[in-house]
Amino acid sequence: MSDRYSQIVNNPVGDFIAKNLGLPRPTELERFQPGQPLTSGRALLGAAPGGRLTETLARELALAEVSTDTPLDEEVRAAAAAGDLDAGIWSADAPGSSRYKALVFDATGIDDSTKLRELWAFFHPSFRSLQPSGRVLVFGTPPKECRSTREATAQRALEGFTRSIAKEARAGGTAQLVYVAPGAEGRLASTLRFFLSARSAYVSGQVARIGNGGKVPEIDWDQPLADSVALVTGASRGIGEAIARTLARDGAHVVGLDIPPQADDLSRVCAEIGGSTITVDITDPDAPAAICERLQSEHGGVDIVVHNAGVTKDKTIVGMDEDRWSVLVDINLSSEERINDALLEGKVLNEGSRIICVSSISGIAGNAGQTNYGTSKAGVIGMVESMAPVLAGMGATINAVAPGFIESQMTAAMPIATREAGRRLNSLSQGGLPIDVAETIAWYASPASTGLNGNLVRVCGQGLLGA
Amino acid sequence: MNDKTRKVAILGGNRIPFARSNGPYKRASNQDMLTAAFDGLVERTGIAGERLGEVAGGAVVKLARDINLTRESVLSTKLAPETPAYDVGQACGTGLEAAILVANKITLGQVDSAIAGGTDTTSDPPIAIGDDLRRVLVEINAARGNVDRLKAVAKLRPSMPIDFPQNAEARTGLSMGEHTAIMAAEWGLSREEQDELAAASHQNLAAAYDRGFFDDLVSPYLGLKRDDNMRPGSTVEKLAKLKPAFGGPEGTMTAGNSTPLTDGASAVLLGSEQWAAAHDLEPLAYLVDAETAAVDFVGKKEGLLMAPAYAVPRMLARSGIELDEFDFYEIHEAFAAQVLCTLRAWEDPVFCKERLGLPKPLGGIDRAKLNVNGGSLAAGHPFAATGGRIVGGLAEQLKENGGGRGLISICAAGGQGVVAILEA
Fold it and tell me: What is the model's pTM?
């Protein structure tokens, strides 16, 4: 499962050879360690004139104790002062040697395409100061909620900018676009913190949409999931195990679920994290009821449900027998629907609960040999999109992550050429780790993420396939 | 004790031209120069033989023998020897602080008249002996008899150091220029705007000399009639050619936009209105308020020279005057960067809220009213003499203007600042 190419290239001789042959040179990504500050460097906060989020961003940066500078622009400085952010000064004319871990830009003031040059004005002088594993965050207004077609046009344009700059970022840098609906300013903290931190190491070129939702409670950012119960399917190994461990790290009581053959591994994992176990096959018609009964009687309900369990059964459509198709779709999609129905009917989901589904880039971009898998994973996206309004009605949320190439048993079993290609065909030139998917899920699961519903975020290092 | 205060008038100022160190004044001592400044003032105002209330003065770089610098200088002048005197020490704030101190005695009615002055030379610095060497020499001196003396002499070592005065803050080890380079970087100053300020300083000083503004303010000394650091033909283009002096190779501070080391002295005569009338002297202006501030440049890492940025708002809050309600601003140009950082700070919402606790920024000043007769960058800055230069010059300018209000702001080593308001 080791990325030997990265190891080779990250020593001086290998690096020299790779550089001269024009081969990819993946940087070792900074990943989150508990107890670390949110960022390991300074942030630069800028805005296009007329932005409505600058003061909120300043306030959240101050609360997160991120040392920040701003340009010497009266509007931005006034917003920083209003947000109680003790910001230093960055001058575009005399950039000096300041380096930044994060470049944060409020683009909500861009209400016409002629004003898009504000993006250039901010990033042209500042981008080269971005440190390795640096972060670019652009904030905008959702095009559908803009007040004019001109504004909607300009705000839609932001996505082309962030996706491109994500491809220019070197040394593990990432870039995202965050649309914040009018009125949702109070809900952007969890997203700002996630994308600023090393938790989002393998997420790049993505768009997050923050809309209306419940009031954001006071939380302990170091243990956001304290006092919550999380069901994680497929928790015995791979990405599921990483999800279970991460949610437990963040304070949740994890109820791990897996099939009987995996019982030993499941018990081991859940014992280590102080969680509990359910051993059941989720395609079993009685499984949803059994799960609901366990959650209700032992835990009084559930706060977080992570639909992670899934299989691949690759074959081209011509060579695929019906069983390969049906069993896979049942496991990866239909059983999730049945479990969701049971949870909703049985009122097992607590107030402010979270459903998170693991999709895949295969469901977005497709893969030869994965007509069954791609179908099921695109179906997961459809389930998230169609159920988002239902969950919103109960003050809950449902979101999806779409992993790209994640180093796991599944990918270790691929033929080497396909595996290398999969690993390198992304902006970060490397595969992700199961924890990268887990951290993204933890972000959705946070009680502070009330504004995130119906989102689909890829954890793919900005994979070059699909959009 | 008198419980009523009275107005304090500035009745005249005098200084000798300032000279670059190790130049025309290299053999002049602090005492020589201070005496010359006093004498010129005494002569111009016609108070020879008078017993003044007191004289306060000082020097930042002082020789060990100058423990009574100001008193010794007074004894060398034509003032009555019954005039008391004392030394004041607040780094570059010395001159202005001396004026404030004597003004406060005048306003309280304790004295009716006083001179405040200051002098400095870096051509004649004290040589300090390192402690090791000093103790041996003290032993040699205290020895009773040749045997003991020889024993003490035997303790001498060639490695015992002599301390030349360093222009560095004791607690940080950084020089003032290096501290200011940090400030300039923090406030994002450009090379160009600093050079612009420097060029304006020279041009304004030259223009002031040419129109005779300094005729009643400067008395010639040792062959100099004008400050010899002044470059009338100074332009931004010429200044742009200089190499950075502080802040590394990418630094924006040069010898042209930093004050050079200079020698010189200045003095100002202050008195009550009655004393002035009794001596046929017309007030040029009145010293109406003053304030000092200090910053924590060690722990909180506030800019070393940012103290005036704190002092002025405090003074304005007390006096009820807004920052833009002055006709003239005299800000000591320790470095062009120091002036510009201070002005930026007053305009910045974050600084004004987080540091000064103000709901909105103080605002900007009209740059056409800044250092209109030249500043320290052109005239030079013998540390303790700058206060007297500025007070005398601003008072004269207010008289020429037919009235008005002026703000003085002077930063000082050790993270302090002294500011004052003059009105006419």
Answer: 0.87
